[in-house]
Amino acid sequence: MLDVRRMQVLKAVVGNGSVTAAAACLGYTPSAVSQQVAALEKEAGTALLERVGRGVRPTPAGLLLTEYADVIGRQVAEAETALGDLLAGRTGRLAVRYFATAGAPLVAPAIARMRAEHPRVQVELKLIDPEDPLPDVREGRADLALVVRPRDADHTGVRLVHLLDDPYRAVLPRGHRLAAQRVIDLAELAEEPWVGSERAGPCLDPQLDACAAAGFTPDFVVESEDYVTAQGFVAAGLGVSLTPRLGLGAHHPGVVVREVRGPEPVRSIYAAVRETAPLGPALRGLLDALRDAARAG
């Protein structure tokens, strides 16, 4: 195998016309340059230089390797520039996983800021509902994922960065007996039929935990697994529902939304990154943008 460093020494000899001149240019002794060329000739299996008067000139093989040394030198310089850009956060690629209700309030403003601050960093966005994105983060297929922290999930190999706590609101039919109240005690909904808006998992758990703390288990008469659809069922008078603030969007005209207490259900939203991943400028910038979007929301 040809030694790239020795090829660069050969290039210096050919470019300067002599071993002595090349040594002065490289800061080596003439003996060291001659040894490097001799070692390269051994690797190549042929002579690379021939004497001409007091100087040297390349053989056809020497000229060939000199031309390749030029190409390699340019590629190394380009690689160093590209590496510098990557380490400075000017270029690169980030793979991001997110869930639907985090898209508009968190992801959209964060990515808009990333494009302004790191225009050459490519961001790949993938909606992951209802899949668990933590394996993608843990195994390096994603650089960051937005998650609602489940009660008993395995977070091995993943670091969770808290972004915000998202409180749930009661969604009631407009003519409901409690619609006139600004704040509703959760226990007041104990005897109501309920419209489910979540599948089993980390977004349903806070609701069930809060209801248990209020002394009851909700009676789900409709399962929708969708916040907009749930509002339609509530508007039709089929029951009441709880929806996280980020999931409310535009209110159905047939419902009212009220704060809940005693206790207030809350889901905690985190950014998950790989525990061993270095926080380069691009990833750190995305985390900062997500934190700011969470505070602004």
Uncertain residue segments? none
Q: Major sheet, described briefly?
A: 8 strands, mixed
Beta-strand percentage range: 25-35%
Amino-to-carboxy terminus distance? 59 Å
Which CATH C-level class of the largest domain is it?
Alpha Beta
Derived structural class: alpha/beta
**Total DSSP E strands:** 12
Residues in helix, %? 40-55%
The CATH architecture of the largest domain? 3-Layer(aba) Sandwich
Mean pLDDT: 89
CA gyration radius, whole angstroms? 33 Å
The CATH homologous superfamily of the largest domain is termed: Periplasmic binding protein-like II
- Number of domains in the coordinates? 3
Write down the CATH topology of the largest domain: D-Maltodextrin-Binding Protein, domain 2
SSE pattern, N- to C-terminal: HHHEEHEHEHEEEEHEHEEEH
Number of helices: 9
Shape: rod-shaped
